[in-house]
Amino acid sequence: MTPHPARDREPASKERLRLWLKLLKLSSGVETELRRRLRDDHGTTLPRFDVMAALSRHPDGLKMSDLSGYLKVSNGNVTGIVDRLTEEGLALRVAVPGDRRAQIARLTPKGHRAFASLAEYHEGWIDDLLGRLTPGDARSLTRLLDKALMCGVDDDLT
Amino acid sequence: MTPHPARDREPASKERLRLWLKLLKLSSGVETELRRRLRDDHGTTLPRFDVMAALSRHPDGLKMSDLSGYLKVSNGNVTGIVDRLTEEGLALRVAVPGDRRAQIARLTPKGHRAFASLAEYHEGWIDDLLGRLTPGDARSLTRLLDKALMCGVDDDLT
DNA sequence: CCAATTTATTTCAAGCTTGAAAATTCCAGC
DNA sequence: GCTGGAATTTTCAAGCTTGAAATAAATTGG
Predict the structure, then answer these.
(1) Subunit contact A22:B152, Cβ cutoff 8 A
(2) Contacts of A37 in chain B (CB under 8 A)
(3) CA of residue B84 relative to chain centroid, distance
């Protein structure tokens, strides 16, 4: 009668639902705070930070499609974000020699400097926001999260 | 010299950063999949689901401001979402007797039925997406997440 | 009763996000 | 060389999100 009865494992499914709500509360809480600090203290946004982080790891630049692949966002999305980073003088597009369709996005020197500074703040913020966890807690959590990720959700960066 | 040196606890901060990346990967992976299923299989969105969930817990309805408080989103945001739920016949606004400024949003009977169905699917999806975790893993994770939440991030629903 | 403040909601501009459609360009096979 | 399909990016409409400004109504203090 019900769509997904799961009558024979009610406790496990409720336990996982409770877990999901906690997971969501923590990650969206941290994320909201990161967005706030990026905006209020540094005049930027999380999407721009994410794009800069990806470009920072690839000093020679990334094709737009590779960039959207790394970040797991749509092509049209990175178009707009790179547009804005370009307006701010933090990124630029360069043509790909052998392929007139493609563009390579890369950070400007100013973009590299800006990201280096942001990245240090970012690490400090995370250390602050997750500061209640001991290094041992963090390792335990990471191990359990790895187990959850093993196949349940497809892989990407890092 | 650096903004947040943390020179004397480099390992701990790196450990927490690694943890944050895993946490983000899992929660955004699950969230993306939830959005996809809500859209493709049920023609709705996660924000609408969240609003319906909050209203479902309060059969007599919630003032718009209480609703945005529960969900921790802006006032203007819920205005638009409730507008769309109303267009779909899933929610409605009723006047508050003693206060002509306030409005109470509540689910219609159709809205209650729709949410009841969605909620069952939702629980099944979570059970599926986190299925690699045993109930014991889930409890361990929940406990560690609770510790992280104890003060690092402010509290809300649940 | 009136003015000032507070409270509740909506409106608005800007940005993020997606999937689909459009515009280019490349390439494989003929 | 052509032609058709694949690949790359941009454009677009729709929706979500925010914070600030605008509206409107209630409350508080003379």
Answers:
(1) no
(2) none
(3) 18
Contact state of A25 with B152 under an 8 Å Cβ cutoff? no
Q: Hey, are the CB atoms on A147 and B158 less than 8 Å from each other?
A: no
Q: How far apart are CA B43 and CA B36, in angstroms?
A: 10
In this complex, the residue of A12, A132, A144 whose CB is nearest that of residue B135 is A12
Delineate the domains of chain B, giving CATH numbers in brackets. Answer: 44-151 (1.10.10.10)
Whether residue B6 is predicted with pLDDT greater than 60 in this model: the reply is no
For the whole prediction, is pTM greater than 0.70?
yes
Under 8 Å CB pairs connecting chains A and B tally to 204
Q: What is the pLDDT of residues B28-75, one digit of tens each?
A: 999 999 999 999 899 999 999 999 999 999 999 999 999 999 999 999
- The CA-atom distances, in angstroms, between B49 and each of A50, B37, B119, B132 are 27, 12, 9, 25
> Mind spelling out the 3-state secondary structure of chain A?
CCCCCCHHHHHHHHHHHHHHHHHHHHHHHHHHHHHHHHHHHHCCCHHHHHHHHHHHCCCCCEEHHHHHHHHCCCHHHHHHHHHHHHHCCCEEEEEECCEEEEEEEEECHHHHHHHHHHHHHHHHHHHHHCCCCCHHHHHHHHHHHHHHHHHHCCCCCC
Residue carrying structure tokens 């809300």: B156
The Å distance, CA of B81 to C1' of D24, is 22
Q: Which residues pair with A107 in a beta bridge?
A: A91
Radius of gyration of chain A (CA): 20
| Model pLDDT for residues B115-132, shown as the tens digit of each residue | 999 999 999 999 999 988
CA of B101 and C1' of C2: distance in angstroms?
Answer: 21
Beta carbons of A47 and A31 less than 8 angstroms apart: no
pLDDT single digits (tens) B136-157? 999 999 999 999 987 656 544 3
